[in-house]
Amino acid sequence: xxxxxxxxxxxxxxxxxxxxxxxxxxxxxxxxxxxxxxxxxxxxxxxxxxxxxxxxxxxxxxxxxxxxxxxxxxxxxxxxxxxxxxxxxxxxxxxxxxxxxxxxxxxxxxxxxxxxxxxxxxxxxxxxxxxxxxxxxxxxxxxxxxxxxxxxxxxxxxxxxxxxxxxxxxxxxxxxxxxxxxxxxxxxxxxxxxxxxxxxxxxxxxxxxxxxxxxxxxxxxxxxxxxxxxxxxxxxxxxxxxxxxxxxxxxxxxxxxxxxxxxxxxxxxxxxxxxxxxxxxxxxxxxxxxxxxxxxxxxxxxxxxxxxxxxxxxxxxxxxxxxxxxxxxxxxxxxxxxxxxxxxxxxxxxxxxxxxxxxxxxxxxxxxxxxxxxxxxxxxxxxxxxxxxxxxxxxxxxxxxxxxxxxxxxxxxxxxxxxxxxxxxxxxxxxxxxxxxxxxxxxxxxxxxxxxxxxxxxxxxxxxxxxxxxxxxxxxxxxxxxxxxxxxxxxxxxxxxxxxxxxxxxxxxxxxxxxxxxxxxxxxxxxxxxxxxxxxxxxxxxxxxxxxxxxxxxxxx
Length: 557
What we know:
The protein contains 18 helices and 15 strands. By secondary structure, the chain is α/β, with parallel strands linked by helices. This is UDP-glycosyltransferases domain-containing protein.
């Protein structure tokens, strides 16, 4: 019997070996299936921005560079003053100028540091539209039509760009540096044009009532001349009238922001937070500045962007605070990026006196003759300074790009906001525990010194700990320019009927309001509840009217 078992065993081994060989050959011959993405082909993409500085424009060109590297034909459309911003992105992104800036109104005229939406701002915005709308509209229209444009990425301020794209049925995306959109499910007007925090969480009933029924109507009234001018210029150009927000409808809003700097809230399917996008490269430290940073261990960097400069009183408070921190050895040096033009302000103090009695001649500080540890520079490589391990604090106006660069490098912030998105940004950084905010209108020396010292000393280590998590968040989020490029390609290849981004449209667009909000169900439920309560109440009242003891019937004789 053992002989037969041996023969059977050998045959089974042969069979199993044969099956294994066949399976191996089948696997070798067929191979694994690797998913392949279809090659969609190159497209013509235009990025437009005619207002703002490098921080307003560069992040969109970073996305454009990624798209160009993927084979697309990408152009940056602007006016002559902004052509310089496109130079670092050539030849990947081609720069096209529509000509000179044809208005006396400059970007800085669109903001008033004393009143958020003042009469001067309204006048500037109105004149800018009158001066530039027609020239820009026809330039965009001709360019889009002649180049067979596949998609347009328009700046939030560029009305002619949107109108030309819409007239030609070209898909478009709005690029924004802040959340000014009805799709954010928040009162976007109040979050920008009404002073205060970006959310109503810490506002009292009185404050919320005032914002909603006094400030907001006041803003709408002041803004009405701008709306009328837009309507007039569109009619003059032969374009049908439109509502103030119609150009936003069905358009993706690409925002250079992120949760952590933006206040988390529900957003619609047409909103994409793609930030913080920072530049691929930055200027390095000049040798003398690198030597300064290497030789000082606690450096404060101060800069207020290209558009803003502190008043004489603000300058005095800030400089006095820094000098006292220097005398107390809380910092051992500072670099203040203060332009030559700003130094000519007539209201700047001639000298500063600290509580120790020391007197500093401001002119000597500017020239560097007073103390080599206290540097005023006409221009500074901001990112390189923030990137140095010895930079311990950034005193900033709170512009989005400046905050992004500071957080990327893990440098806490003392914020001195002027206008625009800066107050909301300052509030958010304070809430995140990575900075503190000053009230520039208060000119409070005690408060400024206290906050400066609190961040630099960081006795409880909270700023350091909070910044570690924020820095990680920002560095990871900074990769999202590739996500932004994916999103643009998504629109390019998924759009229907030329400009219908169908797959992002909310279903409520095709639903009755009562059905979309479930008000019909709620009303029926409420009616049923009221009916039930009425029945219960009537029953209860009826029971109360019954006598407690039934009278006995008298027996008949």
